[in-house]
Write a structure and sequence with these properties.
Order of helices and strands: HH
Distance between the termini: 11 Å
Number of helices: 2
Protein backbone atom coordinates (compact mmCIF):
# COMPACT_ATOMS: atom_id res chain seq x y z
CA UNK A 1 0.00 0.00 0.00
CA UNK A 2 2.95 2.35 0.56
CA UNK A 3 3.83 2.11 -3.13
CA UNK A 4 0.42 3.42 -4.17
CA UNK A 5 0.64 6.20 -1.61
CA UNK A 6 4.12 7.20 -2.81
CA UNK A 7 3.03 7.24 -6.45
CA UNK A 8 0.06 9.45 -5.59
CA UNK A 9 2.37 11.84 -3.74
CA UNK A 10 4.75 11.95 -6.69
CA UNK A 11 1.89 12.64 -9.11
CA UNK A 12 0.69 15.48 -6.90
CA UNK A 13 4.19 16.94 -6.72
CA UNK A 14 4.56 16.66 -10.50
CA UNK A 15 1.23 18.42 -11.04
CA UNK A 16 2.19 21.24 -8.66
CA UNK A 17 5.57 21.65 -10.31
CA UNK A 18 3.97 21.70 -13.78
CA UNK A 19 1.59 24.39 -12.62
CA UNK A 20 4.57 26.30 -11.26
CA UNK A 21 6.41 26.14 -14.58
CA UNK A 22 3.32 27.26 -16.51
CA UNK A 23 2.72 30.18 -14.16
CA UNK A 24 6.35 31.23 -14.39
CA UNK A 25 6.38 31.07 -18.19
CA UNK A 26 3.00 32.66 -18.89
CA UNK A 27 2.79 35.12 -16.02
CA UNK A 28 6.41 35.97 -15.43
CA UNK A 29 8.50 35.45 -18.52
CA UNK A 30 6.11 36.15 -21.41
CA UNK A 31 4.93 39.63 -20.33
CA UNK A 32 8.49 40.77 -19.68
CA UNK A 33 9.74 39.36 -22.97
CA UNK A 34 6.93 40.98 -24.95
CA UNK A 35 7.38 44.33 -23.22
CA UNK A 36 11.07 44.41 -24.13
CA UNK A 37 10.04 44.72 -27.77
CA UNK A 38 7.55 47.45 -26.93
CA UNK A 39 8.70 50.96 -27.80
CA UNK A 40 8.11 52.20 -24.25
CA UNK A 41 9.71 49.24 -22.48
CA UNK A 42 8.16 47.40 -19.56
CA UNK A 43 5.70 49.33 -17.45
CA UNK A 44 5.67 49.18 -13.67
CA UNK A 45 2.42 47.21 -13.71
CA UNK A 46 3.93 44.51 -15.93
CA UNK A 47 7.02 44.25 -13.75
CA UNK A 48 4.95 43.99 -10.57
CA UNK A 49 2.61 41.42 -12.10
CA UNK A 50 5.52 39.36 -13.38
CA UNK A 51 7.20 39.50 -9.96
CA UNK A 52 4.01 38.28 -8.29
CA UNK A 53 3.74 35.41 -10.77
CA UNK A 54 7.36 34.42 -10.23
CA UNK A 55 6.88 34.45 -6.44
CA UNK A 56 3.69 32.37 -6.75
CA UNK A 57 5.51 29.93 -9.05
CA UNK A 58 8.30 29.62 -6.51
CA UNK A 59 5.77 28.95 -3.75
CA UNK A 60 4.12 26.21 -5.84
CA UNK A 61 7.49 24.62 -6.52
CA UNK A 62 8.33 24.64 -2.82
CA UNK A 63 4.94 23.04 -2.08
CA UNK A 64 5.79 20.31 -4.59
CA UNK A 65 9.10 19.70 -2.86
CA UNK A 66 7.34 19.59 0.52
CA UNK A 67 4.89 17.02 -0.87
CA UNK A 68 7.78 14.72 -1.73
CA UNK A 69 9.02 14.84 1.85
CA UNK A 70 5.92 12.85 2.83
CA UNK A 71 7.02 9.73 0.95
CA UNK A 72 6.94 6.51 2.95
CA UNK A 73 9.94 4.16 3.00
Amino acid sequence: MATVYNEQRKLTATWLNGLSVALWAVGGLAPLASSIYNANGPSALIVIGAAICVMAATALHLCARQTLKGLKP
